[in-house]
Amino acid sequence: MATLSANRLTLGYQRQAILRELSLELPEGRISVLVGSNGCGKSTLLKALARLLTPWQGQVALEGEDIRQRPTKAVARTLSLLPQHPVAPEGISVRQLVGLGRHPHQSWLAQWSEGDERAVEQALLRTGLDDLSEQRVETLSGGQRQRAWIAMAVAQDTPLMLLDEPTSFLDLTHQMEVLELLVSLNRDAGKTIVMVLHDLNLACRYADHIVAIREGRVHAQGRPQAVITRERVKEIFQLECRVIEDPFFHTPLCIPFGKGAA
């Protein structure tokens, strides 16, 4: 496993600050979900944690060390990122896409190996794509395509996986398929998973740890039952709701009333 944290992180785009002195320590071996309204800084935080954005102030620490001081390949062997809208090269097969995840483990002296081949095969099996491995990525359904990208991250074989809205634009069946896959990676393979989700009820069902972001800062964090309350939802989303216990999963279930409801 590997630790990942942010300490007084401030950064943004051009001259507009998005995150403001944000501090956060993500629990190892757990599923953490970032929630918050559009524009609050969730995706920016994920990019900062993955070293895609340079902080104006503060630092991101990977295994206790400033992530900017670590070699690029060392970071890529520890942390993988699935962005919001990944685009595959035209004509690439599922197997070829998954194989791209092995690049951090290669060098001029150590090219494609039997170990790389095993990692790709295991990633295809774990994500249920072994029968589709020779198909072109663009021919897959939305859920299958998302699994292919996750399989690439699995083949990268990092203890930390960051995913930005992995269920976006998927129907409910494919959303569940992707989230169940991530749970299995966490429970069976011990991956620490950090993801952004918009659906509060799915976040509560699948998260061990929820981080609520508001205006570029951590507004609340902890177990779903502690974070997702009527008062907090109103503070974070300016939305009136009722929060009850899900009768099947015993997690918070948010029933929205709308902004104008009493």
Automatic annotation (TrEMBL):
Pfam families: ABC_tran. One of its GO terms (molecular function) is ATP binding. It is a peripheral membrane protein. Keywords: ATP-binding, Cell membrane, Ion transport, Iron, Iron transport, Membrane, Nucleotide-binding, Transport. Gene3D superfamilies: P-loop containing nucleotide triphosphate hydrolases. The keyword Membrane applies. SUPFAM superfamilies: P-loop containing nucleoside triphosphate hydrolases. It is found in: Cell membrane. The keyword Ribosomal protein does not apply. Residues 4-240 form the ABC transporter domain. Its main location: membrane. It comes from the Bacteria. PANTHER family: IRON(3+)-HYDROXAMATE IMPORT ATP-BINDING PROTEIN FHUC. This is ABC transporter ATP-binding protein.
